[in-house]
Amino acid sequence: MDTLDRLTKTGEDIRVLLDGREWEEQDKETLERAMGQIEGQWLTKVENIGMLLKSWEYDTGIVSEEIKRLQGRKKQIESKSGWLAEYCKFNMLERGEKKLQFPLVTVSVANNPLSVEIIDQKLVPEKYVTIRTEEYVDKRQILKDYKEEKTEVPGVRIISDRTRLEVK
Questions:
Q1: Residue whose C-alpha is closest to residue 108's, from 60, 167, 22
Q2: Cys-Cys crosslink for 97: which of 21, 29, 92, 120, Cβ 3.0 to 4.6 Å?
Q3: DSSP characters for 98-117?
Q4: Sequence-separated (6 or more) residues with CB below 8 Å from residue 153
C-alpha cells in the first residue's frame, strides 16, 4: 500500500487526466475505476492514521498516570532512604564509629561542606547581594571569602557541624 502523500498525488494526477481532455468511454471507465481504488486506499490510510493517533492519545494518558505513580514511589523511597540514613548515622555516632568498611560497601559519617545560613539579610554587606527579581544573597561568594580570608560576615553564620552518611 502506498503512503498517504503518494495516494494524494496519484489521485490528483488521475483527476487532472480526467478533467483535461475527452476520453473514450472504455479509457474513462478504467481511469474512474483506478480513481475509485486510489480513493478507497486513501480513505483507509486516513482512517488508520486516525485510529493510530487515537491509540497514541490513549497511551499518553496511561504514561502520564504511570509517571505520577512512579513520582509518588520515588518520593516514598527518598523519604525512607533519608530516614534510614539519619537512623544509621545517629547510631554510628552514638557508638563513636566514623567509618566502617565491609566487603561490598563502606559506610562513613562525613562532614558536609561549609554552608551559609542567612540570619538577617539586611545586615549582609552589599557586595554579597545580587539583585534579581528579588534580592539574593550570594552564599557561594560568602563561603569563598570565608575560606580565603577567615573573616566573619555580618548577618550570616558559617555552618560547619553538619554531617551526612556516605555509602560508597
A1: 167
A2: 92
A3: -EEE-SS-EEEEEEPPPEEE
A4: 124, 125, 128, 142, 145, 146
d(Cα 118, Cα 125) in Å, to the nearest integer?
12
Copy the grid coordinates of residue 10: 496519484
What CA–CA distance (Å, rounded) separates 67 from 65? 5
From first to last of the 168 residues of the chain, give the pLDDT tens digit.
689 889 888 888 888 877 767 777 777 788 788 888 888 988 999 888 888 888 998 999 999 999 999 999 999 999 999 999 999 999 999 999 999 999 999 999 999 999 999 999 999 999 999 887 778 889 999 999 888 887 788 999 888 888 877 765
- The amino acid at 138: D
